[in-house]
Fold:
Amino acid sequence: MDVIDLSQTDVRDLNRRLQGAKDGGFQVLHPGGEHALAAGLTTPVAVTIDGHAGYYCAGMNQEAQITVNGNAGTGVAENMMSGTVRVRGDASQSAGATAHGGLLVIEGDASARCAISLKGGDVVVGGSVGHMAAFMAQAGRLVVLGDVGADLGDSLYEAQIYVRGSVVSLGADCVEKEMTAEHKTELAALLEQAGLEADAGAFRCYGSERQLYHFNIDNAGSY
Amino acid sequence: MCGIVGLYLKNPELRDRLGAFFSPMLEQMTDRGPDSAGVAIYRDTEISAGEGKVILYHTDPDFDWDGIAQAAADDLGVDVTAERVSTHAILRATIDAGAMRRWIESNRPKLRIMSSGAILEIYKEVGLPADVLTRFGVPQATGSHAVGHTRMATESAVTTEGAHPFNTGDDLCLVHNGSLSNHHRMRNWLREQAGIAFQTDNDSEVAAGYLTWRLGQGATIAEALEAAIADLDGFYTFAVGTRDGFSVLRDPIACKPAVMAETDDWVAMASEFRALAQLPGVDSATVWEPEPATVYSWGHA
Amino acid sequence: MNNDAKESATYPPRVIDEIQRAASEGIYAIRGAGAKRHVPSFDDLVFLGASMSRYPLEGYRERCDTNVVIGARHASKPIELDIPITIAGMSFGALGANAKQALGLAATAMGTSTTTGDGGMTPEEREASKTLVYQYLPSRYGMTPDQLRHADAIEVVVGQGAKPGGGGMLLGQKITDRVAEMRTLPTGIDQRSACRHPDWTGPDDLEIKIRELREITNWEKPIYVKVGATRTRYDVMLAVKAGADAVVVDGMQGGTAATQDIFIEDVGIPTLPAVRLAVEALQELDMHRKVQLIVSGGIRTGGDVAKALALGADAVSIGMAALMALNCNAPLYEEDYAALGTRPGACDRCHTGRCPVGVATQDPVLEARLDPEEGARRVRNYLSTLTMECQTLARACGKSHVHNLEPEDMVALTVEAAAMAKVPLAGTDWIPGSG
Structure:
């Protein structure tokens, strides 16, 4: 386990070392809310960040397993392609934004625009999420064990959303869908992968009504 | 665009180190605000009624502040002293700050008023935050709370007056991160119909003027901020300093950042967590983000 | 003479048609191309060639260099261009693969760059273009770190001249299986696009995003910031403060493959004042020539290139003109233009995907009308012509490098152009608005 103390070195040095490693484990001390920590990794290294991270922690992650023992700022795991990112505390806005793959687990709460424009990754939140969650989400899955703020899934494409708690309101073209046995099985597997205990049967499923896929004058109010 | 920070010390024993805790917070926000910086210090926790301070600004290093103080003293029939602090000066008077302010506006209209109030002192200048902090002795400041700002000017000039915090009412100041979209018309209305004076083209100054107007109509700061949600359009995180503490408000879309942290000893806010990362006890602080369109307030009384 | 049928200037037939179309369809008109209305432009500026006080350079023998380096401010591998003319961002999706390939081959032959668009980078484009700028857009369609690393430069798009404040648009008829797969969208739907980036808003947060992009690409690649021309002075200053290595300013004449007609015509300022505003902003920050300025939006001739450079731009970018070199609006397949309700010389039907000359289409039958090699030859010819024209004008003004052209080499033919470009009205010392 390599230890890198950010109070003794800088982000460029940290990322160079992490990006240059083919494997192995790294512990990052005193992150102090710095930005772009462990961004752009491409190999299955294991990175633990002891403290709070700033913006774009684990940005564009590929393959790596990154754990934040604290909170993460805006855009954690943004555009992730693969690998796993776990935030033990809370995440700020745009968590998992535009991610194509991989798994982002937020054990605490996430704020606005969680999983915005998701393109295939999985985002699982143990707590609650703020407004505009899954805005324009195209593919992948968002799972929320807690409550959801206003305008869930506005302009949703084909991403799938599972919520256990309450939802303040649904966004344009987002509707509740039947929670099938298939959904429950898939959700249970995802929850297990995320390491969060919950009964898949207690969740509701949301998806796109697909009314905005082609412009129709009668939907003008939704644009 | 900008960085904003605010710190309120709940624990009175920490108040002689307000500046020591606050200065690193402001410096951490340099990258997002390299043009100018400003701080609002609520320095005295006990002040006698009928006393006030006005902070004035002049670029001339040899400006005759004593002369101003004497002229005001003569006209108003009270004691007025002047203390120079770099390009600013503190005029202290045995009269309420509002009266001092009106005297300055009538008799020395060309002087820039940085702040007026019983407790509040605002210092702001063009330049890097670290330089601004040193110039005005902020690391040594004492007091109960402080609000600060680092500026990346968006649509108005980089000038001393354009820096935040803005003060258009006694002991009230505002810092803003974001960009308003209806401030021109709002400014015209406030100037013409509500008699609010503006020194800059800055959208943030309009927000400060709006709050002053609302308070003048009898609203509390919380009510004024609630009304702002409907009346001010655009993107904003506001931190408002008042005599007793500070308040925070984010617009309903909430794209501009805001992080809060709180312990038994203090409550703080900043645009980025790293500004809070060196506060004592931050590792065990409760850290959260303010919800959109929700007014938060902390303070005494 | 029948004087009874008098048209209204406020409600000419064109406007009446549009009102009635809206009443019938209940949606805004969507089209391609840029602003069609007349605006003050480079047409209104002329050069003061050599005379008794200034001496020209001989063509061919006496050097007039055209090279430019973009992005040395922070990047370890800046972009070196042989000519100050690049190909602007246009998406695969908006254009077909043959068009993208033709543009890439031509740019490579001329020692300049092309730019990807919404939807990401295709392998063919990367192969055809020796120097490829990668657009980083609000939609993030097809955006992957591998693509970022495969690019030679990154262009963070805040907006474009055709629609500053608007997002990308691609209608279902152009969302083929391949396009859909690149963008993670269902085939055949109408693409709805974000107008803001998903994970940052504002130059203060852009600064942090740019740092992240640099961390992910090892600080090698220049980072451009592109804006549609609106509050250009502020935008350029903020792009510099946010850390940009180059700024791209796209005036209202800039094209698009699909957006609302009202957006194209009613939002944004012309390229002419935008160039001047951008240069003044850079000069105020002492960043002129340190942060490069690339301007686009209605660049058509080598005269336009020279005038943009004379006002202070480091390079220009062409979009629609490059497509016209590929036969956009050429008098070929005229019955197909007619089927779209238009004709060569007035066509703006890019959004339909039925481009008669095979440029802005995904339909294989239509695409076959554009041979990439033949197209590359045409674009190369056009770029060569632009360069030679620019050099001709520069030599006539006594310049051994096109960057030595200055505003004082020009005068304006109209008051508006004089005011917008801040060059004197011909025959006078007068620049409206100053003094």
User: Anything to note?
Assistant: Chain A has a mean pLDDT of 96. Helices of chain A lie at 11-20, 181-194.
